[in-house]
Design a protein that fits this description.
Rossmann fold; 8 strands; 36% helix
């Protein structure tokens, strides 16, 4: 059981096959698999140490399931999140529409959570016919939600590090360390508490 403490809780949300797991794999392990990943069940967790604004911090990344049948479980994991990356596939407009659903769900639960919109699979839209999400629609929605927007490619690495560094920099400004041991979140305790709360509803 993972008892690692993190300074920043970050969740990845979005429809299944929107590229969430590939994004994490590229950022944390600097790798990309050409073999399609199986759909995430529940969530996958990984921690990454980073330097941001002169501070060392641990970014705890929850890669959540995108399938609709896991929606109730996903809500457990984004509670208490300081930041969220909401992913959508540039080659599927339905993925973009689903991203809007997740933004609303998130902000209804965590209204102060920072939202970052991540348009994935940018390497596939060199051919304009392959792009199914209108550029102006993306930017208009990002402006409406006051969210940062990044076009990324986990295959080439385009804007992947920049996305996570921006998140770390933004969150670092709000962090206060009282000693050499960073204050953080005990992910095991939080998961137990949220699971218990879910079960008694």
């Amino acid at each position: 059981m993972n008892t690692q403490r993190v300074d920043v809780k970050l969740v990845l949300l979005g429809r299944e096959y929107s590229g969430k797991t590939s994004l994490v794999e590229r950022f944390v392990f600097d790798r990309f698999s050409c073999t399609p990943y199986q759909s995430t069940i529940g969530n996958a967790f990984v921690a990454k140490r980073m330097e941001a604004k002169g501070k060392n911090l641990t970014l705890g990344i929850w890669d959540t399931a995108g399938s609709e049948r896991y929606e109730a479980m996903t809500r457990i994991y984004y509670r208490g999140a300081q930041a969220a990356v909401v992913c959508f596939d540039l080659t599927e407009n339905t993925s973009f529409q689903r991203a809007k659903f997740w933004v609303n769900e998130l902000l209804n639960c965590e209204e102060h959570c920072r939202v970052y919109l991540c348009a994935t699979k940018a390497d596939l839209v060199g051919d304009k016919m392959a792009r199914k999400v209108d550029l102006h629609d993306m930017h208009d929605y990002a402006e409406e939600m006051k969210a940062q927007l990044f076009e990324t490619s986990s295959k080439t690495g385009q804007n992947v590090h920049e996305l996570f560094q921006k998140i770390a920099d933004d969150c670092a400004e709000k962090l206060v360390f009282t000693d050499q041991t960073p204050r953080g979140v005990n992910i095991t305790k939080d998961a137990k508490r949220e699971m218990a709360r879910c079960c008694v509803k």
